[in-house]
C-alpha cells in the first residue's frame, strides 16, 4: 500500500480568498503525481499530471507545484469562486506500476 | 462528458447475489481501470486491463473478477455480495502510457441490502 496523504480534509473559504492544499506521497519509486477535481454528482476530472521535481503547472486560477525529493505537492487556488467548490484528489503513480494511488481528497467549499 | 460510459448508474441488490458492472472506454483508449469508492475511503484501486490483458491488480477481493473484451469494453463481476460491498464503482480509461491522465466514467452506485 502506497500512502498518499492529503490535508486538510476539508476547507471552507469565502469567495475571493486564495487557498492551498497539500498532498504527501512516497519520495521513492516516483513516476508521476496527478491532481483531479471531483464535483458533486460528477466524475473526477484531471487537472494536472506532473513528473519532474520542481514542476509547476497552471490552469486559470489553479496551479500546482511538485517536490519529489521530499514527497509533496501543493495545489493553489487564487481568488476562489463558488464554482471551485469540489473535492480535490491527488494520486501517486509509482515507477514500478501503472495504477494511480489516490489520497482521500480535500473537500473545498467556497461561499459567496 | 469524459467519453467513458458506465452502466448501470444505480444497482440495488441483496446479499449473496452476483452483479456485473460494465464499462466502455474512450475511443482509442486501450487501458481500463476499476476503482471502488466507499464511505470514508479514498478511491481504492481494484484492477487494470490493457488491450485485453490484466496489467495490475490492487485490493480486489477474490469474490470480484474482471475482464476486458476484444472490443475493449470491460466488465467487473461482483459475487456473493456483502453489505460492505456497497460503494461507488468507477471505471477509468487512458491511452496507457505512463503519466497520462485518467478519464473517469460517471460510476455505478451499488447498494447491497
What does this entry look like structurally?
The complex is a heterodimer of chains A (about 110) and B (about 110). By secondary structure, chain A is mainly β. Chain A has strands at about 5, 10-15, 20-25, 30-40, 45-50, 55-60, 60-65, 70-75, 85-95, 100, 105-110. In chain A, the strands form 2 sheets. In chain A, strands 2, 4, 5, 9, 10 and 11 form a 6-stranded mixed β-sheet that branches. In chain A, strands 1-3-8-7-6 form a 5-stranded antiparallel β-sheet, with no helix packed on it. The termini of chain A are far apart. Chain B is about 0% helix and about 50% strand. Chain B is an all-beta fold and about 110 residues long. In chain B, strand 5 (about 45-50) and strand 6 (about 55) form a beta hairpin. Chain B contains no helices and 11 strands. The interface of A and B includes residues 51 and 101 of A.
Mean pLDDT of chain A: 95
State the secondary-structure class of chain B. Answer: mainly beta
Instruction: Kindly state the number of beta strands of chain A.
Output: 11
- The radius of gyration computed from the alpha-carbon positions of chain B, rounded to a whole number of angstroms, is 13 Å
Structural class of chain A, by secondary structure, is mainly beta
Task: Tell me briefly what this model is.
Chain A is mostly beta strands and 112 residues long. Helix content of chain A is 0%, strand content 55%. In chain A, strand 9 (86-94) and strand 10 form a beta hairpin.
Search tags:
heterodimer, A: 112 residues, mainly beta, six-stranded mixed β-sheet, five-stranded antiparallel β-sheet, 11 strands, 0% helix, 55% strand, globular, B: 113 residues, seven-stranded mixed β-sheet, 51% strand
Give the SSE layout.
The complex is a heterodimer of chains A (112) and B (113).
Chain A: E1 5-7, E2 10-14, E3 19-24, E4 30-38, E5 45-50, E6 56-59, E7 62-67, E8 72-77, E9 86-94, E10 101-102, E11 106-111
Parallel strand pairs in A: 2-11
Antiparallel strand pairs in A: 1-3, 3-8, 4-5, 4-9, 6-7, 7-8, 9-10, 9-11
Chain B: E1 5-7, E2 10-13, E3 19-24, E4 31-37, E5 43-50, E6 53-57, E7 64-68, E8 74-78, E9 87-94, E10 103-104, E11 108-112
Parallel strand pairs in B: 2-11
Antiparallel strand pairs in B: 1-3, 3-8, 4-5, 4-9, 5-6, 7-8, 9-10, 9-11
Amino acid at each position: 500500500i502506497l500512502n498518499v496523504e492529503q490535508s486538510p480534509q476539508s476547507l471552507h473559504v469565502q469567495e475571493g480568498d486564495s487557498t492551498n492544499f497539500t498532498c504527501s506521497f512516497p519520495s521513492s519509486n516516483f513516476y508521476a503525481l496527478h491532481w483531479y477535481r471531483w464535483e458533486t454528482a460528477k466524475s473526477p476530472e484531471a487537472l494536472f499530471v506532473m513528473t519532474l521535481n520542481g514542476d509547476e503547472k497552471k490552469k486559470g486560477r489553479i496551479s500546482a507545484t511538485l517536490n519529489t525529493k521530499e514527497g509533496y505537492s501543493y495545489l493553489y487556488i487564487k481568488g476562489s469562486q463558488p464554482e471551485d467548490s469540489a473535492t480535490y484528489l491527488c494520486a501517486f503513480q509509482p515507477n514500478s506500476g501503472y495504477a494511480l494511488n489516490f489520497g482521500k481528497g480535500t473537500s473545498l467549499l467556497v461561499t459567496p | 462528458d469524459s467519453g467513458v460510459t458506465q452502466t448501470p448508474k444505480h444497482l440495488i441488490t441483496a446479499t449473496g447475489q452476483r452483479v456485473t458492472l460494465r464499462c466502455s472506454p474512450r475511443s482509442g483508449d486501450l487501458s481500463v481501470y476499476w476503482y471502488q469508492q466507499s464511505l470514508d475511503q479514498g478511491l481504492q484501486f481494484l484492477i487494470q486491463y490493457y488491450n485485453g490483458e490484466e496489467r495490475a491488480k490492487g485490493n480486489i477481493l477474490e469474490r470480484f473478477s474482471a475482464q476486458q473484451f476484444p472490443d475493449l469494453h470491460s466488465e467487473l463481476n461482483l459475487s456473493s455480495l456483502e453489505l460492505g460491498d456497497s460503494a461507488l464503482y468507477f471505471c477509468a480509461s487512458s491511452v496507457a502510457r505512463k503519466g497520462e491522465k485518467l478519464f473517469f466514467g460517471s460510476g455505478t452506485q451499488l447498494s447491497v441490502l
